[in-house]
Amino acid sequence: MGRLPPPQDEAARRAASPGLAASQEARREALYMALAQVPPGRVVSYGQLAELAGLGRAARWVGRSLSQLPQGTTLPWHRVIAASGRLSLPAGSVSGAEQRQRLRAEGVLVIHDRVDIRRHGWRPMEHSG
């Protein structure tokens, strides 16, 4: 049985394959475009956002990407929650408190760190012209 090569860090992978960096950037752009369309007062799950962006079943990748958004971004990251309706950012954290405050300011009911997806979930086909 052969040995697997040692894992490469992201910078090494990008240097070895310039197309990978472009591909990752294209994925992020698709994610950001889909996220920007989520209207105030509505929420989406990480998995739903991945599908809307054409990224398949990349919910975890979406979560990682959103956690790396720059401070002060205008993207509505606070509208992305777990598929169960649970807010995934800890209540005691600065970002968790900000998410709860922003959602409530938009009229989203947050009860016991949960949002009723049937009531506040975004269904693009219902909301398009």
TrEMBL record:
Where do the segments described as Disordered lie?
A: 1-20
Q: Which InterPro entries match?
A: ATL_DNA_repair, MethylDNA_cys_MeTrfase_DNA-bd, MethylDNA_cys_MeTrfase_DNAb, WH-like_DNA-bd_sf
Q: Is DNA damage one of the keywords?
A: yes
Chain ranges of the Methylated-DNA-[protein]-cysteine S-methyltransferase DNA binding domain: 28-108
Coiled-coil positions:
none
Q: Which Pfam families match?
A: DNA_binding_1
Q: Which UniProt keywords apply?
A: DNA damage
Name of the protein = MGMT family protein
Source organism of the structure = Pseudomonas aestuarii
